[in-house]
Amino acid sequence: MAGRETAGGETASLGSRPAGDAPARLTAWIAGRVQGVGFRWWVRARALELGLVGLAENLEDGRVKVVAEGPMARCGELLALLAGPGTPGHVTRVTQRWDDPSGSLAGFTER
Question: What are phi and psi of 8, to 5 degrees?
Fold first, then answer.
């Protein structure tokens, strides 16, 4: 699967998400008031509930970067949660990229 980036206005466009349960790697950049509000912890909890591995890290520009690997459908569920109304803070934009999984991740960490 070649990498594809999409950006939504208020939320991510899920129409460009691959379908199925094949292994996938989702990288998402979340903008808004998402640092200092428990966002990374919340992402980690949701990812673990979905059985995903990866990381959530603060970026210097104020965004949070999330990398998750697992079944495409589960990664898509996490993406929907990232763009949904129940997140800590205030999400204004989610940009996403889909790739083949690297298989190098274990657990789900906060950085």
Answer: -105, 165
Q: Is 111 within the bounds of a domain? A: no
Q: How far is CA 77 from the centre of its chain?
A: 9
Q: pTM for this structure?
A: 0.83
Instruction: Give me the catalytic one of 17, 25, 40, 46.
Output: 40
Q: By residue range, what is the domain housing residue 79? A: 4-102
Structural domain count, the chain? 1
Per the annotation, the verdict on 58 as an active-site residue is yes
Each residue's pLDDT, cut to its tens digit, for the chain (111 residues) gives 444 444 443 334 444 545 578 999 999 999 999 999 999 999 999 999 999 999 999 999 999 999 999 999 999 999 999 999 999 999 999 999 999 999 999 999 999
